[in-house]
Amino acid sequence: xxxxxxxxxxxxxxxxxxxxxxxxxxxxxxxxxxxxxxxxxxxxxxxxxxxxxxxxxxxxxxxxxxxxxxxxxxxxxxxxxxxxxxxxxxxxxxxxxxxxxxxxxxxxxxxxxxxxxxxxxxxxxxxxxxxxxxxxxxxxxxxxxxxxxxxxxxxxxxxxxxxxxxxxxxxxxxxxxxxxxxxxxxxxxxxxxxxxxxxxxxxxxxxxxxxxxxxxxxxxxxxxxxxxxxxxxxxxxxxxxxx
Length: 243
Fold this sequence. Notes:
The protein has two domains: 14-185, Bira Bifunctional Protein, Domain 2 (BirA Bifunctional Protein, domain 2, 2-Layer Sandwich); 191-242, no CATH class. Helices cover 23% and strands 33% of the residues. The protein is built from four helices and 13 strands. The chain has helices spanning 59-73, 132-143, 152-173, 179-185; strands spanning 14-18, 21-25, 31-34, 38-48, 83-86, 90-93, 97-109, 112-122, 192-194, 202-208, 214-218, 222-228, 239-240. The strands form three sheets. The chain has a six-stranded antiparallel beta sheet with strand order 1-4-8-7-6-5. Strand 5 (83-86) and strand 6 (90-93) form a beta hairpin. Helix 1 (59-73) packs across helix 3 (152-173). It is globular, with a radius of gyration of 18 Å. Belongs to the biotin--protein ligase family.
């Protein structure tokens, strides 16, 4: 898809869907393996450099994560399914288990970003952790409902449709157009993190800044933006304050 995207007409999009993934690329050069039962896609988008999103490209991964969650929770009856986003690019069951993730690569050519968005989430595999249809079965048992299981094809289509709407809103209104939706579904409200190291000072997560980085409040120091240190598997460990 990376070779094809530069040959397409500007108004044409492209998506590749995999039933099983054996040579996928994860963050930091990791291999992203996925069996049958997952929703796996790579989507090509173009974003003008001189646009709200083009000036804040890190927000793309947040919009995609939110689109995956809303693809499920915007279906009538499915609003209570505990699918959430974890900054910057993970899909979670509550704040307990990871069900999927997002990886974004961007190439700037003249004044256009060509964005390759890889996203995958577990729809129908109960192992090794949990899947979306497990959450639906759990919800049915607890609430006495009869929600039907969902399919990977349906959720990929819904995710792309929701993402298109979120991008349009962001381009029109900027971060404030989407952040209230994002905060509704994220796992971090009121949570604490350590800065600099495992023994570093405690800080409270308060939100996302205008560039898409995490904002924390360290007692006595006000609100600051932090970045991952790049070495930890968990993006919320060992956060650093850029100088």
